[in-house]
Amino acid sequence: AGRKPYPAVCMLKAQLLKHLLRVPSDQRLALLLKRNRRVARACGFRRETPSHGLFTQFRHRLGNDGYEKVFSLLLKQLLKDGAVKGEVVAFDSTAVKAYSQRSLNNKTGKSDREARVGRGRRGFVLGYKVHTACCASSELPLAFMVEPCNRNDKCFIQPLLEKLKVQDINFKTVLADAQYDSTKVRNVVRKYGAEPVIPYRKSSKIRDALRIGKDFIVRGVKQLVKLFRKRVSVERLFSRAKEWLQLDHLRVRGLEQAFIHACLSFSAMLAVALTALRQHRPHLMRSIKYYTTQ
Question: Could you give the residue ranges of the DSSP H alpha helices within the chain?
Fold first, then answer.
């Protein structure tokens, strides 16, 4: 008989801690657990701690569905506590660079064949896009998908709305930028019983339509403009996930591993919010810095 495996809960805690403490790799995480008994005990390890290779094995064993289930359980608890409501949901995507160089065809990755070259915020990037639905009031993630960078954002509105329905989130308003402007997208949102607040393109002839001018000022009906301004919540979510939870520090290859990486970042964010609620400090729900720099 071989050595008894480490408990799954301990392994999962260690991986969440990796994102919270911004540990750059599994090797560094294994070293941290070995040298720091306090951190090891916090994760549930008593005497021995896992090697870095065991974390890779654990990710493959648990898979996408297992990690997404952890995310869903954390979100359900926040919904139950009333900290997350999801009545107004903001949609957007952010590019994450692949852990690979470009191949000679300039379309795929050299060592990551599933990564694709697509448009990012600052030119073209090789990697993946994290498509996200965010609660506009709490600025916390409600659902997400990870796809190659060359896929159009519009393709993922319906799958994300379906995920919200599965979580029993009663969203009433959907916010998105002009990238999502299409009749099909608006019809899909209305099919789910919500009102789309999406700016029309400049060429649109619809009177008093919501538009973003060349000066980046939003114009239109005052009520819609006020609602649309809440879309900044998803931008803040991406900012926190990248700065404090390593969302853009991808050190694994392949679509499945990129999904798990994003799932751990967002699960860590929900764990911080849940901790703040348990400590009766709701004002610290979004303060990752408070819980990770003390």
Answer: 8-20, 26-35, 37-43, 52-81, 157-166, 183-191, 222-228, 232-244, 255-278, 288-292
